User: Which sequence fits this backbone?
């Protein structure tokens, strides 16, 4: 299973490191990563591989959400298929 | 790999424009639950529903978490209970409603549809008694929804049933008067009812449907409105194209969720219903889409044309996005559930007569309309007859879900709370239809040729 993680909010030092640390602990592999800043809004996207994940999806989602709240950014994790199905035939 | 722009577009639709899956509805056949003994039939019904739907709510919640798309309602529809209850000797139909209510509570769904009867051509021995039990059934349960099909294009309009339903709606309103006549919000009178509608209150599991099926209703008026707001000054070709593209994307979500839910539950995938279903939330209004096309207010001249374009473009965009499309598929125009409709009624732009005209070109009909409590039953029946005639002649589904709130006067506002919103009490034509409705009998089916 692959999932897209998006982080939207104000940029700050160590943001990617903090998110990546959670993923590393959960044994989630990052396949691709990109980031941009649009009008002061920081946007990071990661494509991740959850096949070897050592916790369930709901728990990872909760950890990421909590971390987002701590850092003052919006963190989402969504299975890749939702984007595929909406934008690809 | 999907690109950043696409990812952000999806997230924006969900987060800012209220894109959601409105309902995952599990249709369950109860045809094997009949018994001469009412209690035995009710036990079979309860057992079967709780067995089939035990994981429905959890599955919906899991999908919501994993895909990050809100799934607002998880619901159940069943075979019209009039058919199942027919072989029970006692004639105590309310017991069936209680069994459905218990099953809904146990499985955690917020509504269960199918306390229904199909009487478009006439009554069976038990149909009349069954329909008479609807007010008690709706007033003594929380989650049961009821519908009655009184007309079809092939059979014509059963005017006896139309007359009875006017009285049933009044009685339901009186029995639930303490609760702002909320019972009537759970009761729909149909012409050309569809068998695979996932939306309440009119959902039931038709007799041609399989054992168990998953139907999904998508929504997203906010997404369409947001797309149109960027199109100031474009011509209608461009407007229709934009709606089609947006409807395609919305429907793809529904298709994904329907496939996923049916495979996880081990149940066949029925249909995706391509409806634009509004909610009272700001930015989730069908009326605002029509206004984004250039109307000062929904209800202004041009509204019917705008709605016709919207309804058609939604279908065209959605059809290609899903392998099976069905249900009601179109734009819903429930007054109390749509912030823009409420405003339009309150400022005098939208009347009952204009809504009736709008139902000629959109999905369903007069929906969630609050009328004065002293409206005579015959007038309600006549409103149903008018709406049924539109459906029968135009070969489309129409419906009436009208709420005569006791003691409510035109211009007041009745608040139902939650997804049902709040409805301004609308004026009703005060001239009598009494003698017309008293005739009874059946209006013959219309001609199917010589069309003009």
Assistant:
């Amino acid at each position: 299973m692959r999932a897209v993680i998006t982080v939207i909010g104000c940029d700050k030092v160590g943001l990617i490191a903090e998110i990546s640390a959670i993923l590393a602990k959960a044994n989630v592999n990052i396949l691709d990563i990109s980031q941009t800043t649009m009008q002061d809004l920081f946007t990071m996207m990661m494509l991740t591989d959850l096949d070897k994940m050592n916790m369930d999806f709901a728990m990872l989602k909760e950890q990421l959400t909590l971390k987002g709240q701590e850092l003052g950014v919006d963190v989402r994790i969504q299975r890749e298929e939702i984007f595929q199905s909406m934008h690809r035939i | 790999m999907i690109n950043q722009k696409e990812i952000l577009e999806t997230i924006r639709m969900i987060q800012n424009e209220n894109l959601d899956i409105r309902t995952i509805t599990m249709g369950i056949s109860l045809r094997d639950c009949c018994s001469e003994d009412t209690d035995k039939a009710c036990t079979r019904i309860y057992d079967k529903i709780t067995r089939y739907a035990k994981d429905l709510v959890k599955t919906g919640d899991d999908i919501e978490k994993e895909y990050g798309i809100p799934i607002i309602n998880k619901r159940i529809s069943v075979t019209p209970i009039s058919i199942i209850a027919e072989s029970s000797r006692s004639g105590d139909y309310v017991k069936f409603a209680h069994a459905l209510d218990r099953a809904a509570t146990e499985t955690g769904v917020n509504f269960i549809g199918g306390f229904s009867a199909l009487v478009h051509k006439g009554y069976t021995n038990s149909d009349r008694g069954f329909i008479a039990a609807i007010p008690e059934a709706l007033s003594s349960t929380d989650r049961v929804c009821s519908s009655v099909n009184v007309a079809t294009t092939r059979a014509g309009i059963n005017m006896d049933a139309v007359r009875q339903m006017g009285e049933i709606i009044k009685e339901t309103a009186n029995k639930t008067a303490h609760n702002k006549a909320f019972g009537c919000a759970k009761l729909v009178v149909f012409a050309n009812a569809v068998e695979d509608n996932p939306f309440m209150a009119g959902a039931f599991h038709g007799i041609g449907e399989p054992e168990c099926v998953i139907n999904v209703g998508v929504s997203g008026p906010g997404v369409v409105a947001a797309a149109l707001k960027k199109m100031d000054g474009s011509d209608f070709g461009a407007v229709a194209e934009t709606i089609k593209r947006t409807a395609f994307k919305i429907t793809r979500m529904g298709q994904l969720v329907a496939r996923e839910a049916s495979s996880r539950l081990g149940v066949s995938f029925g249909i995706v219903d391509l409806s634009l279903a509004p909610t009272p939330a700001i930015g989730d209004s069908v009326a605002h889409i029509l206004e984004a096309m250039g109307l000062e207010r929904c209800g202004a001249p041009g509204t019917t044309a705008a709605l016709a374009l919207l309804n058609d473009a939604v279908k065209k965009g959605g059809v290609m996005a899903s392998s099976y499309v069905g249900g009601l598929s179109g734009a819903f125009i429930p007054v109390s559930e749509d912030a823009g409709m409420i405003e339009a009624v309150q400022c005098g732009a939208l009347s009952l007569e204009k809504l009736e005209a709008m139902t000629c070109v959109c999905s369903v009909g007069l929906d969630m309309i609050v009328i004065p409590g002293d409206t005579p039953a015959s007038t309600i029946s006549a409103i149903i007859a008018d709406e049924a005639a539109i459906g029968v002649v135009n070969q489309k589904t129409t419906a009436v879900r009208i709420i005569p709130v006791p003691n409510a006067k035109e211009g007041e506002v009745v608040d139902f709370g939650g997804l049902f919103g709040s409805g301004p009490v609308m004026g009703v034509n005060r001239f009598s239809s009494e003698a017309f409705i008293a005739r009874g009998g059946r209006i013959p089916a219309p001609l199917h040729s010589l069309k003009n």
Remarks:
- The domain at 20-191 of chain B is CATH 3.20.70.20 (Anaerobic Ribonucleotide-triphosphate Reductase Large Chain).
